[in-house]
């Protein structure tokens, strides 16, 4: 387990590994309350928040007309502090209040600003050379924006001036990244202590623009809601656990991956196995239908290819104690044979990655059988596969459930690591921990790149890496390889880009 997964470290909020934490609105509110009870003055926290936003503005823009949009809550309170701070720095500032401040701190901040707030109808909207500060709603937004609030958001987005959002763009749901009706499209967002799910999950991530995390004096570690912390995916979480061959290693001790090959869509397992071998698997065996053996064999001279005329051949092969992980589903049709194979693979109790056609087969399994198996399982659905896999899961847990919460719920339900893929891939562990990968380039949206990812996870698993860490590492390495290649990326390019990315990480640790 990485030291970065350790909640008891003495780091300050906003610094080092804790800057990697993602904290829900409820966790943030609980952490703030605890800090206030322990003696932090809530108005001091608000002043620090407002000053941090003003500092970020002063560091990026020269003096210009600013319009501050203030909401009724503490987000609006921050807005009044920002207005007063920029005015003190000599900037021309005007303020509009959506409604009168409703909290003691926000009222005090409004009194500190001291000047009248314009009615929304009386606003002169700044042009491109001006600036808007969005302090309408923060993590307290619970309902859809409508009426004057929605109108202010739309006018702000249309006026052409850059927008700086306080804490989170108004209209973005802090926990899910969903837009509640409409939302500010910010150039810069300054948030406090920790990043929120809405900053990294789409569409909130796009609305956030540049993200700055400011220290406002909260304690080092947030109070997790249910002991299931969430992180942003960075190598600090898992770099130390990347497998490195030891002097005494041989190919089997480095890890032997068995991949179940299909008869028609052979490309999937070929890509996956190449990625697994590039990630350091000592040996990879493809169990293929007899008619496809030559296709697999000609593709990679270093992979072992064995015919599997019957399911019984797979069962017998998996009994070999030198098998360390299995990949099933890539390039397999969903249905009869795949379901049968999956049952046998899980019964063999190796670490297993289930992708593609295997995911539909997983849905039909008896969950008791899964709970009793010994090996860790990683499921790698994209959103379409997730919807089929989980059926009513989302509905059962209520409408508006975010991608993070859906992945966490599925991981708990299935007792498996879930890699819910996409531009904002979520990796969730059965114990509720989760990691969000917010930095993948869209060049990955190309056929076969998911097969490479499944193989990469399997390649790390086969070398004994923990399933949650292996999945997070694979998602990051996959995205980094794609980022380096850039335009024109094919899935075929990805496996051979991995060694350099891994080598640089290992050298840096
Ligand atoms: N003292 C603290 O707790 C601190 C809070 N801070 C700021 O406070 C914010 C959270 O403050 P609040 O909890 O007051 O919440 P917000 O200011 O985000 O919004 C809550 C207010 O908006 C209203 N509201 C919610 N949804 C609405 C909708 N759709 N239409 C109209 N009104 C709606 C609520 O009734 C409430 O009055 C953070 O995002 C951060 O900016 C910072 O100042 C740091 C310190
Ligand atoms: N717009 C995007 N931005 C970043 N990554 C993406 C995007 N679209 C897809 N990906 C990534 O590309 C891969 C596609 O996997 P998948 O949908 O299974 O495709 P395939 O089945 O063709 O391999 C996943 O790792 C996914 O996270
Ligand atoms: K805001």
UniProtKB/TrEMBL annotation:
Entry keyword annotation includes Isomerase: yes
Free-text cofactor note: Binds 1 potassium ion per subunit.
Record-linked Pfam families: Carb_kinase, YjeF_N
Cofactor(s) recorded in Swiss-Prot or TrEMBL: K(+); Mg(2+)
SUPFAM superfamilies: Ribokinase-like, YjeF N-terminal domain-like
Binding residues annotated for K(+), in chain numbering: 75, 134, 170
Subunit details: Homotetramer.
Protein name as annotated: Bifunctional NAD(P)H-hydrate repair enzyme
Source organism: Dongia soli
């Amino acid at each position: 387990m990485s030291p970065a997964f350790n909640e008891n470290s003495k780091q300050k909020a906003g610094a080092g590994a804790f800057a990697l934490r993602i904290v829900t609105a409820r966790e943030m509110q609980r952490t703030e309350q605890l800090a206030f009870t322990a003696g932090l003055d809530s108005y001091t926290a608000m002043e620090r928040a407002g000053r941090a936003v003003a500092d970020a503005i002063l560091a990026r823009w020269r003096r210009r007309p600013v319009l501050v949009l203030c909401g009724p809550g503490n987000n609006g309170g921050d807005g009044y502090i920002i207005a007063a701070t920029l005015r003190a720095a000599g900037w021309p500032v005007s303020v509009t209040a959506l409604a009168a401040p409703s909290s003691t701190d926000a009222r005090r901040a409004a009194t500190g600003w001291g000047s009248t707030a314009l009615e929304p109808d009386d606003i002169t909207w700044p042009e491109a050379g001006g600036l808007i500060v969005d302090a309408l709603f923060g993590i307290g937004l619970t309902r859809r924006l409508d009426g004057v609030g929605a109108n202010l958001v739309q006018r702000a987005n249309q006026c052409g001036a850059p927008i700086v959002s306080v804490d989170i763009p108004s209209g973005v749901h802090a926990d899910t990244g969903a837009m509640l009706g409409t939302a500010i499209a910010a150039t810069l967002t300054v948030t406090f202590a920790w990043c929120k799910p809405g900053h990294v999950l789409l569409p909130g991530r796009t609305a956030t623009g540049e993200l700055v995390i400011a220290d406002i004096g909260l304690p080092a570690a947030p109070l997790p809601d249910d002991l299931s912390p969430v992180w942003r995916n960075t190598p600090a979480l898992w770099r130390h656990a990347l497998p490195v061959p030891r002097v005494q290693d041989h190919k089997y001790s480095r890890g032997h991956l068995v991949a179940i090959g299909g008869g028609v869509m052979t490309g999937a397992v070929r890509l996956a196995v190449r990625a697994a071998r590039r990630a350091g698997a000592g040996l990879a065996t493809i169990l293929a239908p007899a008619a496809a053996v030559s296709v697999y064999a000609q593709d990679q001279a270093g992979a072992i290819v064995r015919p599997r005329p019957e399911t019984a051949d797979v069962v017998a092969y998996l009994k070999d104690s030198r098998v360390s992980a299995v990949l099933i589903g890539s390039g397999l049709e969903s249905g009869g044979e795949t379901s049968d194979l999956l049952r046998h693979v899980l019964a063999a109790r190796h670490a297993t990655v289930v992708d593609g056609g295997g995911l539909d087969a997983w849905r039909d399994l008896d969950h008791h059988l899964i709970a009793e198996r010994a090996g860790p399982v990683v499921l790698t659905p994209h959103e379409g596969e997730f919807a089929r896999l989980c059926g009513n899961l989302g509905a059962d847990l209520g409408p508006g459930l975010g991608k993070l919460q859906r992945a966490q719920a599925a991981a708990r339900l299935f007792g498996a690591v879930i890699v819910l893929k996409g531009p904002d891939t979520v990796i969730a562990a059965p114990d509720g921990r989760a990691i969000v990968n917010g930095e993948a380039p869209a060049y990955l949206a190309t056929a076969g790149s998911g097969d490479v990812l499944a193989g990469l996870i399997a390649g790390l698993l086969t070398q004994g890496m923990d399933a949650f860490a292996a999945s997070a590492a694979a998602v990051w390495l996959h995205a980094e390889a794609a980022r380096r290649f850039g335009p024109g990326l094919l899935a075929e390019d990805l496996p051979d880009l991995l060694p350099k990315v891994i080598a640089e990480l290992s050298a840096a640790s």
